Amino acid sequence: MKKLIALFAVSAVASTSAVAGIALSGSASVSYDDNGTMTSATKYDADISMVGTAGTTTVTIGMDVNGGTSTATNYAAITGADMSTKIGPVTIAADMFDEVSAATTTSSAGQEFETVDTGVTISLDVPVGGMTVGLDNSGDVSLSGTFSGVTVSHTVGDTTKTTASAAIAGIDMSVTNKAGATTWDIATTVSGIDLTLTSGQKVTAAFGIAGNTMTVSAIPSVASAAASAGTVSGTGTNGFGTYKQIAAKSYSTVAIARDLTSGASLSATYSTSDDSLTLKASVAF
């Protein structure tokens, strides 16, 4: 009997130790959309994230547990699998899950062919202004760091990309140049109203206090664009290619969100694009 009790004690300690290195979080929501003059629809979503830590090594796995991409058989689907570890000043990160990058529609300018985005990145923290130098298995080299309050990230590879962001006098700014095209966004608070403006002419204003807010957004129109033929390997002039873009008119949305004493949140969103009202109940843990 003493041996049996001792065995259970060892098992309990081992289980506790294993669980101590794992953190679980998740979210779930159900929404009802009257879809304006079209048929109404109810949608569900439930996700779980698991983070396992052992020393300086971390593994993160994400799952869509309400059916994912296999709704016909109601299978849960993996949405991410990453691992990172540190060896002195060197950080090794591995993305082990290949997300779907090809578009699911042929009329919204999405990517034509699938891109394999699994890979390994090796980064070195250089003791010069907090700069980090990175190299991934595709050959891309990245430099990042914060200098005089401005965070800069520069990647050189198939597509050169530079991003600079800073918080100055209560204004958060970010500018990105990718393959010669520049985008930016500005966020600030004026008289308790959180305002966001982007280079795409999208404007968002959020009113209220935490747990009880109203957000008004103005979404700009989208011009039509022709398709660009790509290749499976992405080596042509147009890379992996894009589908055509159908023009869309500008529209606005108004969303009211309220935290409930039950721990859930309730929101109502009205959109002028299709005169629809969406009610959504959600919870995160």
Which SSEs are present, and which pair or pack?
Blueprint: H1 2-20, E1 22-33, E2 41-54, E3 57-64, E4 77-87, E5 90-95, E6 119-126, E7 131-136, E8 141-147, E9 150-156, E10 161-168, E11 171-178, E12 181-190, E13 193-198, E14 203-209, E15 212-219, E16 251-259, E17 265-271, E18 276-284
Antiparallel strand pairs: 1-2, 1-18, 2-3, 3-4, 4-5, 5-6, 6-7, 7-8, 8-9, 9-10, 10-11, 11-12, 12-13, 13-14, 14-15, 15-16, 16-17, 17-18
Question: Which key features would you list for this structure?
Answer:
285 residues; mainly beta; 18-stranded antiparallel beta barrel; 7% helix; globular; disordered N terminus
Low-confidence stretches: 1-17
Largest sheet: 18 strands, antiparallel, barrel
Total count of strands: 18
Mean pLDDT: 88
- By DSSP (H or I, 4+ residues per run), the number of helices equals 1
What's the helix-strand series? HEEEEEEEEEEEEEEEEEE
Strand content bin: over 45%
